[in-house]
Amino acid sequence: MNGTEGARLFREAWIAGVRRHFPGEPEPGFVTPWEDVPEWQREVSGIVAERIQGLMKLSEGNAARLSREQKGRFVAICWATEVSDQLDEPDPAELAEWPDLPLWHRETVADVFEALEKTA
User: Fold this and answer.
1) Sign of the CA dihedral running 99, 87, 13, 1
2) 0.90 surpassed by pTM
3) Closest CA relative to residue 117, chosen from 44, 68, 79
4) DSSP output for 13-55
5) Cα–chain-centroid distance for residue 77?
6) How confident is the model at residue 120, as a pLDDT?
7) How far, in Å, are 11, 13, 96 from residue 32 at the CA level?
8) Which of 43, 65, 79, 88 is most buried (CB neighbours < 10 A)?
9) Closest by alpha carbon to 31, among 13, 46, 7?
10) Tens digit of each residue's pLDDT (9 = 90 or more) over 24-46
């Protein structure tokens, strides 16, 4: 899977997770279609997708045994790292610590990991 495909899958899994876990109606930015996502988000999505797939390959698939929380934490840490690298002044919400993320967000990033682990 190339970077663009991984980034698109990341976004599709994110949107599906938001729709599944967000309480009520999500903010429009949470479910923005791929075509309308800013370039920096596309790049970060692709890099994080590659990291998930790389972890799966490096672990010979054993990373699938991680708990949902561990999977979600991995995505959240990778996301925050790449956002910090891409943006000079990132929104603090993009860099939030795991305990500070709302439950819907934690569940969504775990869904993202699980969608991408199947492609490695």
Assistant:
1) negative
2) yes
3) 68
4) HHHHHHHHHSSSSPPGGGG--GGGS-HHHHHHHHHHHHHHHHH
5) 9
6) 79
7) 9, 12, 21
8) 79
9) 13
10) 999 999 999 999 999 999 999 99
Distance linking the first and last C-alpha atoms of the chain: 8
Closest residue by Cα to residue 104 from 5, 30, 40, 42: 30
Identity (one letter) of the amino acid at 18?
Answer: V
Place of tokens 């930015």: 29
Measured in residues, the chain has a length of: 120
Is 14 exposed, middle or buried, given 0-12, 13-18 or 19+ CB atoms closer than 10 A?
buried
Q: Taking Cα atoms as reference points, which of 78, 82, 67, 77 lies closest to residue 114?
A: 67
